[in-house]
Queue: 2 jobs
Job 1
Amino acid sequence: MRTLFYYHPDFLEHNPGRGHPERPERLRAIIDGLKDSSLDQQVEWVEPQTVDPSYLKGIHSDEYVERILALDGCSTALDPDTVVSPGSVRAALRAAGAAVEAAKAVLSSSRTVAFCAVRPPGHHAERNRAMGFCLFNNVAIAADRVITEGLARRVVIFDPDLHHGNGTQNAFYRRNDVFYISIHRYPYYPGTGAISETGEGEGQGFTANVPLPGGMGDDDYMFVVMELVLPVMESFRPELLLVSAGFDAHVSDPLGDMSVTESGFVGMYSRIMTKALEKNIKCAFILEGGYDLYALRSSVSSILETLIEEKFEHSHEIRPCQEVQEIVDFVIERLRI
Ligand SMILES: [Zn+2]
């Protein structure tokens, strides 16, 4: 499958400082992994532009956007976790630009998928607030933009990052044109993502939270995909699926204690891609978390190889734990699917 790979050296210029887990080496590890497996020759490299700042205002307040833009070239901490270095604003503008460009590119071409290797990540960024390493909500901006431009009527955002994407959920909590699905550890940072959070007003039933205890592994995550994500793709009929592609649920990740492996990620995304091809739903992956360099490198390489070669893996029997089955049953009853 034609696979677009969005990357720009500016992403390395966002430097939250020594010892910060969200560090430039994350992207260097991903790129090294591609080169070592020759996948770099098989993807189509795209250098994204910085986003048009007016696009940010579909998701963030005017005042917030102006406040962040004014920090270009500065060093400061927006909260204890979220640090701006002189290159951060430019990197963040390019990360949002990559998400928007990737969404548009896959919508306008056939049998094309995109992976955005971007920093800083986005899913914690709120309308008025930077948090959790995130400045602009890349995925939310892309979803909002393609709907605003009439390129898609409905978008699904699937967010299997270890952490709940509070910013993304809030952006669409009252909307019925973007269906947000998150699998995350709970209770955990950032504290949101309870099973009872299912949307409000017109958005009621269009947010699905699957809060999990620690230790959940490949079969548990694949079960959620099969029982929840695939049925939403069928019934909501989106033109586009954006993945908030976090890898901090990996068994080796230092920030969490989930047990997902490379083959779990491949299994999840194989099932999603098979359904997407069947239903003509276009897909773009936008990097979020993932802090073990080797896990990040090998997970991204495995997924890209799967996408390029369309080696979609479905074979093995899924044995989720009882608790996950009960959570998913509870969630499904409360959704518009
Ligand atoms: Zn995370």
Job 2
Amino acid sequence: MTMERLQRYSVIREKNPREIVLLKGRGCQWRRCAFCDYYLDGSPDEEADFLVNREVLAQVTGETGCLEVINSGSFSDLDDRTMDEIASVCCAKHIRELHFECHWINRGAIPKARSRFRGLGVTLKIKTGVETFDAEFRENVLNKGIKETDPAKIAEPFDECCLLFGIAGQTKAGMIRDIETGLKYFERVCVNIMNENGTEIHPDPEVIRTFRSEILPVYRDNDRVDILMNNTDFGVG
Ligand code: SF4
């Protein structure tokens, strides 16, 4: 996998317009989700990562006032100099809203980050991958690593959630329930459709067909719902 060839900067113009950057960090600390191979973008070379990240962040223009940073893990996996660079870019480009990703196990890092950026006049929005509120499926099949079962408690430290659809065993009713639960407890929901990757979890064409014909039309125009049929739909990756 040649990560340097990844597209690392893009602008999302519909629904919650924002610039988006894919940065490099030391990699997800969980690394056990059964459906995921994203964490292969992690690297132990902090200096090299910082240089990549600085170059990517230099492309941010501030045109929407909003920036999303993703890094195949949690924001707390980014090195200190990259975090400083993000803070500088926010100030220089008048970014007022900054979106980060964070796994459940790293939620303890959120309050300090919120307060650091609040001091710069930047509101943090933290997105977490829940994948489904069906705790048994989430933990026994997807191995997500969220022991909490109460959606309200899962949502507490976060602002936004990701859901993962298109896997055998998922149903129309279950997917709708997940989206509605996400909308109830989070500001925004991002639905990812399972794409083929190197893991043992494969997309289920029948579940995806059901999503496409019966659920997508209902939520397509909902401003609080992003839907990624392919994992590069945001223009990075
Ligand atoms: S937390 Fe995210 S990056 Fe880490 S293994 Fe799970 S899906 Fe992959």
